[in-house]
Amino acid sequence: MPMAADDIAQMIRAAIPDAQVEITDLAGDGDHYAARVVSESFRGMSRVAQQRAVYAALGGRMGGVLHALQLTTAVPN
User: Fold this and answer.
1) Buried (b) or exposed (e) across 4-31, using 16+ Cβ within 10 A?
2) pLDDT over threshold 90, residue 46
3) Can you tell me whether residue 26 is helix, strand or coil?
4) Radius of gyration of the chain from Cα atoms?
5) Of residues 30 and 1, more confidently modeled
6) 3-state secondary structure (DSSP) of residue 4
7) Among 52, 50, 44, which Cα is nearest to 73's?
8) Which of 33, 54, 67, 75 has the smallest number of CB atoms closer than 10 Å to its CB?
9) What mean pLDDT, rounded, does the chain reach?
């Protein structure tokens, strides 16, 4: 069963409370998403570390329930 966009956003916000999260269903199938996550907590972190923080928030669902996630991370301007 695919994962709902709202569930993805909630999981990210639960782990990164100040995160601004935008989820886009890329294929309309509930399996291929793009996420933009902006958080002050990312400041000073490498992009790889930022993305690892988001993947950790998803609790191992990548590659399983959540098939594909195109991820963009950033710090607020």
Assistant:
1) ebeebbebbbeebeebebebeeeeeeee
2) yes
3) coil
4) 12
5) 30
6) coil
7) 50
8) 75
9) 93
The pair of structure tokens assigned to 7 is 């569930």
Give the residue carrying structure tokens 């950790």. Answer: 56
CA distance 77 to 64: 34
Number of Cβ within 10 Å of residue 33's Cβ equals 23
Residues 34, 23 contacting (CB under 8 angstroms):
yes
Distance CA 31, CA 42 (A): 26
Chain center to CA of 37: 6
Q: Which two tokens stand for residue 42?
A: 């990312």
Please report the pLDDT score of residue 60 as a whole number: 83
Buried b (16+ CB within 10 A) or exposed e, 40-61: eebeeeeeeebbebbbebbeeb
Global pTM? 0.90
Q: Is 26 left (phi over 0), alpha (psi -120 to 50) or beta?
A: alpha
